[in-house]
Amino acid sequence: MPSQYYKFMTKLSVNVNKIATLRNARGGNVPNLVKVASDIEQFGADGITVHPRPDERHIKYQDVYDLKKVVKGEFNIEGYPNHKFIELVLDVKPHQVTLVPDPPGILTSNQGWDVKGHEEFLKPIIAQFKQAGIRVSLFMEPNATVMEDVVSVGADRIELYTGHYADDYANKEQAIKKYKAAAVQAAKLGLGINAGHDLSLANLAYFASEIDNLDEVSIGHALVSDALYYGLEEIVMLYKERL
Ligand code: PXP
């Protein structure tokens, strides 16, 4: 393909936690999480993300095993690496694990790692995952100066926490600056780049067009909310179009 037509393909991984939350509201199996995840992939998503939390209030540990059997694209498990989480990930062996520094009981992930402050904690955990052949991504603030720390603990990728970008989207040229700087530095150091949190139909296209080498976005809340209006098949296509 002539180089002027080359467009870096960013993968869309759909976070299905909200589907599990809806199911759990009634205690049965409606909607059927495994079927919805399979359909989302069939509609064009490149992968599925789950974020099991210690209280299992949305994704249950059993869901992760059930999904592993059906997910055909990339399977990404994200979460705080406590003992139970580490055991689950090593057992299921997804393509990627995304480590987030959530304190237990938090409503949603709302900050990246202080990698330097957790170096001794993170290093052996990352080594264990990598030894098992699982790619490791760290949820990070858009701060170019700490990308070296990610390399030094042995992670393969960063996931840029895009909450600030979404909040400041009205002034998007300003909001994107620190993300660009962080991504440029990460790429220079050989790290892959993912992004997620509060990405939406409205703000995704600009983010993807401004960040070179964006490997993957993981999107849950806005996509599932938009599906109420558009339907799942249509909404997966609309998000893919923006990438
Ligand atoms: N990335 C991480 C680390 C998250 O914790 C979440 C939310 O579970 C997401 C991405 C997806 O965010 P949203 O649901 O706002 O699209």
Feature tags:
single chain; 243 residues; alpha/beta; TIM Barrel; eight-stranded parallel barrel; 8 strands; 43% helix; binds pyridoxine-5'-phosphate
Silhouette: globular
What top-tier CATH class fits best? Alpha Beta
Helix content: 40-55%
Main sheet attributes: strand count, strand direction, barrel closure? 8 strands, parallel, barrel
Could you describe the 3D structure shown?
The chain is an alpha/beta fold and about 240 residues long. The protein has one domain (about 10-240): Alpha-Beta Barrel (TIM Barrel), CATH 3.20.20.70. The protein has twelve helices and eight strands. It has an eight-stranded parallel β-barrel, surrounded by four helices. Helix 10 links the parallel strand 7 (about 190-195) and strand 8 (about 215-220). Helix 2 (about 35-40) packs parallel to helix 3 (about 60-70). The structure holds pyridoxine-5'-phosphate. Pyridoxine-5'-phosphate (PXP) binds near residues 17 and 196. Pyridoxine-5'-phosphate (PXP) binds near residues 196, 218 and 219.
